[in-house]
Write a structure and sequence with these properties.
This protein is α/β, with parallel strands linked by helices. 43% of the residues lie in helices and 19% in strands. Helix 1 packs across helix 2 and helix 3 packs parallel to helix 5.
C-alpha cells in the first residue's frame, strides 16, 4: 500500500470496524445506565443487535460535513445571579507506573470554600484522570443539591471537548455520564483556567495520590 494511505477494515456486518466498535461501546453504556437508573435489563445479544442496528442507521444518514452550531452545554432556566453560582475547580494527578490517579475539586460559594478528593485505580491516561475528576465533582454537586455551577480546569483539551460535546472511544463512558449529569443542573458551564490559578485543586490531588501510594 502506498505511503500515506490507511487500511480500512470492515466487519462481517458490512460496517467499518471503528464505527461498529464505537457503537458497541455506546450501546453497552446505554444498557448500563438503563440498568442503574431505570432498572431495565438487556441480554448481551440484544445489546449487540442494538449496536449493529444503530451503526447501520448512522452510516446510512451520514452526509458530507457542513457547518453547524452546537447546542451549548450551558443551561439556564432562569438565569441565576452570579452570587448563586458555585465555582468548582477540578484537577487530577496521574501516576504512569501504577495507573493510579488522585482526583480533587474545590467548591467556592460566596464566602465559603471546601476541598474534596477521591482516588481511582486502573486509569488509562492523564486525560482520563482529568475527565474523571470533572465527573466526580459534578456527582458531588448533584448529591449535595447544587444546581448552578461552573467547572474550571487547567486541562484545556478536556474543556474544549466538553464545550464541543465531543466523545472519544477512550472517554466514551465517562463523557456520556457527564453529558447525562448536565441535565441535573439549572446552569453548568466549563471554563479553562491557567494552571497557576488551579494550585489549590492541584495540591489536593497530589495529597490524594500520595495516600494511595502509601497503601
Amino acid at each position: 500500500m502506498g505511503e500515506g494511505q490507511e487500511d480500512t477494515f470492515s466487519s462481517p456486518t458490512g460496517i467499518e470496524s471503528g464505527t461498529l466498535a464505537a457503537s458497541i461501546v455506546w450501546s453497552l453504556w446505554i444498557s448500563r445506565n438503563q440498568l442503574l437508573f431505570e432498572k431495565r435489563k438487556f441480554t448481551p445479544e440484544e445489546t449487540i443487535l442494538k449496536a449493529i442496528t444503530n451503526a447501520r442507521e448512522w452510516m446510512q444518514v451520514q452526509t458530507p460535513p457542513s457547518p453547524k452550531v452546537l447546542k451549548p452545554l450551558i443551561r439556564s432556566e432562569p438565569n441565576p445571579s452570579q452570587a448563586d453560582v458555585h465555582s468548582i475547580y477540578t484537577d487530577a494527578t496521574w501516576n504512569s507506573s501504577t495507573r493510579c490517579a488522585g482526583l480533587g475539586w474545590i467548591v467556592d460559594y460566596r464566602d465559603s470554600s471546601s476541598q474534596h478528593a477521591a482516588t481511582s485505580t486502573f486509569v488509562s491516561s492523564p486525560l482520563m484522570a482529568e475527565t474523571m475528576a470533572v465527573l466526580a465533582a459534578m456527582t458531588f454537586a448533584r448529591d449535595h443539591g447544587i444546581d448552578t455551577l461552573s467547572i474550571s480546569s487547567d486541562f484545556q483539551t478536556l474543556i474544549n471537548m466538553l464545550n464541543r460535546q465531543e466523545r472519544t472511544l477512550e472517554l466514551y463512558g465517562v463523557m456520556s455520564d457527564i453529558y447525562f449529569l448536565c441535565r441535573s443542573f439549572i446552569l453548568i458551564k466549563f471554563i479553562f483556567i491557567p494552571r497557576a490559578a488551579n494550585a489549590r485543586a492541584d495540591s489536593v490531588t497530589k495529597h490524594a495520590l500520595w495516600t494511595v501510594n502509601l497503601d
